Amino acid sequence: MLQVLQIVRDNPTGSQFLMSSSTIPNLNAFRRGQRGRGRGSGRGVGSSHSGAAGLGHGRHRPHDEIIQNTDNDAATSRLSAVEAGYLEDPFARLLSADEDGPVARRLPLMNRGTYLRTASIDRIVDTFLSSTGHGCRQIISLGAGSDTRYFRLKHKRQNLAIVYHEVDFEANTRRKIGRLRSPPFADKAKTLAGVDMHASDVRLSEDGSTLRSSEYNIHPQDLRRLPRDNADLTGVDKDLPTLIISECCLVYLPPEDADAVLRYFSQLFPSTTPLAIVVYEPIRPHDSFGRTMVRNLMSRGIQLQTLEKYAGLAEQQERLKTYGFRGDDGTGSGAEAVDINFIWQRWTPPEEKERVDGLEWMDELEEFVLLAKHYCICWGWRGYGEGSGWKELPSSSPN
C-alpha cells in the first residue's frame, strides 16, 4: 500500500507545503481506503481512464504497463465520485475491477476533482453536439480505458445519432469488451441506453480485443504507430463532424509522437469537416509543487513526456493552433485553455457549487486549489460557422 500523502502547512515565510519524497502530488494521491487516508497511483485531477492509448511493445513495455495499469484505479476514482453523489453514472460499477465489492472512497477533494474533470469534458461534448446540427456526429476517444461516456450519452438521449470510437491498449480493450458483453452490463446497457451489445451488427475479433458495430467501435491501437504507418482506424468517417478526446493520454508520449498524433488527426479530416478536440493534462511543472509532482511520478517509472514542452496554458493553446485550431483564419476556428480551478470558479453555476459543497465536508480547500491549478482543459475547434457555441465557453482570454 502506498503511503499517505503528508501535506504540512509551513509558516508564512517558508515554503507553502512540505511533502514527503515518496508521494505523488495530484488529486489521485488523495484517497480514503478502508483504514483512513491512503495514496493512489495517480492519473491527475480525478481519474477517468487509462492514459496513453495502445503503447505498443518492445523497449516501451515496462513504461507502457505502468500506464496501462492505472485504469483500475481510474475506475475506482470515478465510482467513488458516483457513490458520493457527485456524478450520475449507472454503468460505472459494472466496469470496475470489483463490481460487487465495497467502494474504496476517495477523499472529498479527489471526488471533486473527478467531478470537475468529467463535468468539464461533458460540457465540451455537449457544445460539440449542439454546434453540429441534428445529423450524425462522431467521437474518437484516445486512451478510453473503462470510460463510460458513450453509454452515458445514449442513456441521456437514446435517439442521438453518433458513431463512437475508443482507442486503447490491447489488454485494456480485451478486458473492457469482456465486461461490456457480460450479462449484468449488457442488460443494463440495453435497458437504460438502448444499446444491444449482442446485436447482429456487433462483431468481435477472434482474440476479443476489437469490437465493431454501426455506432460503437473499440480499437486496440498503438498511437505511436498510427501516424508512422499512415493507417486508418477502421470505420472512422472523414466526412462526419468529429470530436477527439484525449484525457491524460498524449502526455505519456514523447513530444514528437504526441505531435504526430495531433498532426495525423488534423490532416485526416478535410477542412470542410467540422473538427474539435479536447485535451486534459497536467501543467506547470516548474514551481515547487510541479517539480515534486514530476520527481515523484518519475520515481515510480511514470514519465509525463510532453509536460516540459507544453508546460502552461499558453503553450497548450498554441499547440492546438499549430494544428489548425487557430481562430484567426475566418473559418470559424479557435483554441482555448483553462485550469481546473478556473473550471470550478467560472464553469460551475452557483447552484451546482452549492450542491457539490453539500455532499461532503472538505477541509483540504487550499490543497484542492493548488492541485487544480496543475491540471488543465484545452479545447479547439475548426470548420464551424461563427454562430456555433464554442465561443460561449468561458475562457481566460477575451472572446
Automatic annotation (TrEMBL):
Domain of life the protein comes from: Eukaryota
GO annotation, biological process: methylation
Function noted in UniProt: Methylates the carboxyl group of the C-terminal leucine residue of protein phosphatase 2A catalytic subunits to form alpha-leucine ester residues.
Residues involved in S-adenosyl-L-methionine binding: R117, G143, D222, L223, E247
Enzyme type, top EC level: transferase
Entries under InterPro entries matching the protein: LCMT1, Ppm1/Ppm2/Tcmp, SAM-dependent_MTases_sf
Keyword annotations: Methyltransferase, S-adenosyl-L-methionine, Transferase
A Pfam cross-reference name: LCM
Keyword S-adenosyl-L-methionine in annotation: yes
Reactions performed catalytically: [phosphatase 2A protein]-C-terminal L-leucine + S-adenosyl-L-methionine = [phosphatase 2A protein]-C-terminal L-leucine methyl ester + S-adenosyl-L-homocysteine
Enzyme Commission code(s) on record: 2.1.1.233
Any one Gene Ontology molecular-function term assigned to this protein's record: protein C-terminal leucine carboxyl O-methyltransferase activity
Similarity remark: Belongs to the methyltransferase superfamily. LCMT family.
Residue span of region Disordered: 26-65
Name of the protein described by the UniProt record: Leucine carboxyl methyltransferase 1
SUPFAM superfamilies recorded: S-adenosyl-L-methionine-dependent methyltransferases (SSF53335)
